[in-house]
Write a structure and sequence with these properties.
There is one protein chain. The strands form three sheets. A seven-stranded mixed beta sheet has the order 2-1-5-4-3-8-9, sandwiched between helices. It has a two-stranded antiparallel sheet with strand order 6-7. α4 packs across α7 (about 185-200). It has about 260 residues and is an alpha+beta fold. β6 and β7 form a beta hairpin. The protein is built from eight helices and eleven strands. It has a domain at about 35-205: Glutaredoxin (3-Layer(aba) Sandwich), CATH 3.40.30.10. The protein has helices at about 1-25, 35-40, 60-65, 80-95, 115-125, 140-150, 185-200, 230-260, and strands at about 50, 55-60, 70-75, 100-105, 130-135, 155, 160-165, 165-170, 175-180, 215-220, 225.
Length: about 260
């Protein structure tokens, strides 16, 4: 009886798992950040959009041959959207390399209108800054664009809110070059993102959900690059081999001296 009961439990668990997988429809795992390696270098679709001022334009014209920082929000968000945007604006003001970079904030909520995005711009205090563009687009175009960069959003009926990550995408020449998934944007991380968008060399940087292994440390304020603890780890094998070799030579010399006496 016990064996039969265990078999029934295992079969039921397998059926439940199969049902859950089928209902998910192959969707991305929402519990982890998107895998950058899967999306980097993807060509972004040149979707049409309407800015907060009511101007009809598209993604390429907003970038205007400049590096582009792209974020997705919705104006009725009661969670991460507002603090995320505020931290981005603050970090942006602290950066020394602000010129020559376009910033685009798009809504993924089909209820949002240009006037709603204009209110977001006013709230951030950047409504008159030409480097910032706020806009909306057709739902199918937003879906194509978000899927290209790995951004997801799911409607939660019980909370009447969208579940979604806080993410900045760096785009160069119409292609995704890097993602920053964080609820709070710091000046250091933003500077690394901008340098990547511009095409400058970044020695190393921590990936979301992975160990912070750095060979170099970059100071966003001074622009200086210094060695970090990760560089020391790279020297451990060299030091170990050198020490082992020295011990072997010393032991061999001692044996020769003993044999001669």
């Amino acid at each position: 009886m016990c064996t039969r009961a265990r078999r029934l439990i295992v079969s039921a668990a397998g059926l439940l798992l199969a049902t859950q997988v089928a209902s998910a429809g192959g969707r991305q795992d929402r519990s982890i950040p998107p895998d950058q390696e899967r999306y980097v270098s993807a060509q972004l679709p040149n979707i049409a959009l309407t800015t907060s001022t009511g101007t009809a334009t598209d993604l390429q014209r907003v970038a205007n041959s400049r590096p582009l920082l792209l974020a997705f929000v919705f104006t009725r968000c009661t969670g991460v959207c507002s603090p995320f945007l505020m931290s981005w604006r603050t970090a942006d003001q602290q950066m020394s390399r602000r010129a020559g970079v376009a910033r685009l904030v798009l809504s993924f909520d089909p209820r949002d209108k240009p006037a709603d995005m204009a209110e977001v711009a006013r709230h951030l205090g950047v409504e008159s800054d030409p480097a910032w563009t706020f806009g909306v687009a057709a739902p199918e175009d937003i879906r194509r664009l978000t899927q290209t960069v790995g951004f997801w959003y799911d409607w939660d009926e019980s909370r009447q809110q969208f579940d979604h990550p806080a993410m900045l995408a760096a785009v160069r020449d119409g292609r995704l070059v890097r993602l920053l998934i964080t609820g709070t944007v710091t000046s250091g991380r933003l500077d690394e993102l901008v340098r990547e968008a511009i095409g400058e060399f970044i020695p190393s940087y921590p990936l979301p959900g992975r160990a912070r292994f750095r060979c170099f440390q970059y100071d966003a304020r001074s622009g200086r690059i210094t060695l970090d603890w990760g560089f020391g780890l790279l020297l451990i094998p060299v030091f170990t081999v050198s020490l082992s070799t020295a011990i072997m030579f010393a032991a061999g010399a001692r044996l020769r001296r003993t044999g001669q006496t």
